[in-house]
Amino acid sequence: MSLTLSLDFQFTTSIEKLWSALTDSSKLAKWVANIHTGQPMENDFKPVVGHRFQFRTQPTEYWNGIIEGEVLIVEEPNRLSYTWASGEKHTVTWTLQDLGNGKVNLHLEQTGISNEQALAGAKYGWGKWCGELEKVLEQ
Fold first, then answer.
1. Cis peptide upstream of residue 47 (ω within 30 degrees of 0)
2. Are 96 and 104 in contact (CB under 8 A)?
3. What CA–CA distance (Å, rounded) separates 92 from 84?
4. What digits encode the pLDDT tens for the residues 5-18?
5. Where would one find coiled-coil regions in this protein (predicted)?
């Protein structure tokens, strides 16, 4: 059984600024942080199909602190997809839609989740991160 997480976030920003926050490694480091410590995760993300990347944070007794990924789709500024592997391997797809009046909808779909606990964890994590993303967009 494979579960899918589907979330929507609305931001008051331009689609270009939101795209940049999703694809620029220095901006990603400001909002994709260790859920427990809040420390930014170093990464070598590049919006290039086939690019393999890592997000790194302090390891714990339960986790090595590394998220591995590979970029699958880059359709600037509307769609970005990559694998996201930390134990399980998932696929994360972001779809950006300009709603007009300075509003942008960001749709997240994460597929390949194996159980309800992992689904709840992903929902919590992305919800927290997208709250941090909103702060980055206000800068």
1. no
2. yes
3. 7
4. 999 999 999 999 99
5. none
Is 1 a residue whose pLDDT tops 80?
Answer: no
Q: Which of 21, 22, 58, 11 is nearest to 136 (CA)?
A: 21
Against a cut of 0.85, is the pTM above it?
A: yes
DSSP code at position 39: P
Q: Give me the helix-helix angle, 15-23 and 116-138, nearest 10°.
A: 120
Which residue in the block uniquely carries the two structure tokens 């929507």?
8
Token pair recorded at residue 138? 């206000």
Token pair 């509003």 is found at 103
Q: Would you say 89 and 72 are in contact if contact means Cβ atoms under 8 Å apart?
A: no
Largest alpha-carbon pair distance within the chain?
Answer: 47
Closest by Cα among 71, 51, 42, 63 to 121: 63
Euclidean distance between CA atoms 13 and 18, whole angstroms: 7
Beta bridge partners of 118: none
Report the distance separating Cα 133 and Cα 40, nearest Å. Answer: 12
The percent of residues in the chain predicted with pLDDT above 90, rounded, is 86
- Cα radius of gyration (the chain): 14
